[in-house]
Amino acid sequence: MRLSEMDPELLTRNQITSLLFDGLEDDGKNGDCILVFGARSLLRVEKAAELYSEKRAPTILVSGSGARWGDEEIPEAVWMRDQLMERGVPSEDILLEIKAENTTENVVASMLVLQQTFGLHAINRLLIVSSPFHMKRCLLTLKTYMPERIEYTLCADNRKVGQRTNWWTDPGEKANVVKEVKSINKYAKLGILRDEEL
Q: Which of 7, 83, 129, 181 to pair with 198, CA 20 to 30 A apart?
């Protein structure tokens, strides 16, 4: 069965866990850049700062405008940059992408920043930072739009609840997970995501 063919309403908890969490652990490899998907999330900021301080990658690219949420304040990426700087990351090691309003645009707009900064040909591996439930869609989107030869290390934030072992125990995290499964199904049907076998 393919992503576009699944019925999110019929999936068991184990099937949902497998879909969104299996094979998406941090493999410990270093990369050329840390790509942080947009959100005003201290958890994502802290994870990116941790990876940077461990010298897993020399640069952090923060992506997101926040406009989809009706924010009239500073873009998500600018907010994340400021939070990273407060945690000791030098501004010269932080790249900004401030136009993206969704996951697909995070990837497509970040490609241009990476091309203009390094050249996509020079990128071999990206370290990806987002929430645990969002990692599968991040990876599918990257595989759909980025050059195929680029590899990814997936570095979900360190939240205590919302991981593969306990996402169903918190109503908010459970709602996020269920919504994410529906989004993956919908976007695979529309052709926005590569339609893979489950």
A: 129
